[in-house]
């Protein structure tokens, strides 16, 4: 994606998230250096209190309507944040390029929550996204270390590397280390975008690869989402998007996207499918 296209997308996102009301359509343009800490924006989200969180290359900007608080690390950790997430307990998680942090509302500082590999070694991880399952389990998709699971005991927290197939801290014969996106469907099954294609894991730990493209093509899928009608939509970095029937597990290609690298794909409330690409808007 070109720098100019990225900047236009960033500014469009800022405008959309700063609309005060449907009727007034009042908007605000945020610029790096003047209004926020960086022009390179990786993620924007509104929490349940209406606070906007903007993850950038230079900290996380927390805009509550009255002021902008820039959340940064000390020198021991990266200030490039790529993702923010609010869980059901209203905790705010901030993911940088080397750690997962829990936001402290008293100090306005991020606290590193350590992550551990299956063998017990500490990990420096690049988180791609977080999801919370229906049972409250928090999972982190990473680039290089597969899936991490939040473990809480006696007031202490850590992230443990687990197998995507069993959700237990074990290494299986076939491991998946690059997990870019994950979603849980209405049946409690997990769907994950990995370097080996789309993987579906049911509640009993039975896994299945979904055949979207042949083995000769790039099988690293970038994004998957669930629509209101029960279909799943996934996109491939190298080109193309597919609709997967949740019941039959049959994947059908979306027409007109075969040559486009798909970075995100989302079905809105009316089941219209919105597709973002890496060089074509």
Describe the structure concisely for a colleague.
By secondary structure, the protein is mostly beta strands. The protein has one helix at about 5-15; strands at about 40-45, 50-55, 60-65, 70, 80-85, 90-95, 100-105, 110-115, 115, 120-125, 125-130, 140, 145-155, 155-160, 180-185, 190-195, 195-200, 205-210, 220-225, 230-235, 240-245, 250-255, 260-265, 275.
Question: How do the helices and strands line up, and which of them pair or pack?
Answer:
Elements lengths: L2 H15 L23 E6 L5 E5 L2 E5 L4 E4 L9 E6 L5 E5 L3 E5 L4 E5 L1 E2 L5 E2 L3 E6 L5 E5 L4 E7 L2 E7 L16 E6 L5 E5 L2 E5 L5 E4 L10 E6 L5 E5 L4 E4 L6 E3 L8 E6 L5 E5 L4
Parallel strand pairs: 9-14
Antiparallel strand pairs: 1-2, 2-3, 3-4, 5-6, 6-7, 7-8, 9-10, 11-12, 12-13, 13-14, 15-16, 16-17, 17-18, 19-20, 20-21, 21-22, 23-24
């Amino acid at each position: 994606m070109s720098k100019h296209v990225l900047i236009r997308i960033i500014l469009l996102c800022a405008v959309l998230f700063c609309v005060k009301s449907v009727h007034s359509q009042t908007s605000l343009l945020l610029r790096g250096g003047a209004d926020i800490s960086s022009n390179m924006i990786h993620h924007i989200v509104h929490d349940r209190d209406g606070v906007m969180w903007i993850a950038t290359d230079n900290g996380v900007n927390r805009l509550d309507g009255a002021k902008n608080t820039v959340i940064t690390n000390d020198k021991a950790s990266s200030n490039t944040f790529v993702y923010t997430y609010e869980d059901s307990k209203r905790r705010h998680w901030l993911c940088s390029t080397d750690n997962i942090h829990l936001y402290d509302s008293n100090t306005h500082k991020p606290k590193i929550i350590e992550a551990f590999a299956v063998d017990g070694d500490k990990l420096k991880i690049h988180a791609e996204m977080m999801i919370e399952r229906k049972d409250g389990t928090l999972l982190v998709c990473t680039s290089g270390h597969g899936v991490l699971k939040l473990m809480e005991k006696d007031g202490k927290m850590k992230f443990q590397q687990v197998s995507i197939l069993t959700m237990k801290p074990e290494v299986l014969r076939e491991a998946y280390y690059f997990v870019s996106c994950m979603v849980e469907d209405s049946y409690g099954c997990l769907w994950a975008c990995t370097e080996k294609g789309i993987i579906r894991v049911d509640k009993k730990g039975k896994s299945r690869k979904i055949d979207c493209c042949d083995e000769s093509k790039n099988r690293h899928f970038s994004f998957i989402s669930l629509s209101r009608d029960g279909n799943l939509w996934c996109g491939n970095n190298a080109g193309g998007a597919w609709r997967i029937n949740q019941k039959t597990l049959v994947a059908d290609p979306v027409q007109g996207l075969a040559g486009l690298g798909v970075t995100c794909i989302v079905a809105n409330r009316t089941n219209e499918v919105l597709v973002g690409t890496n060089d074509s808007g």
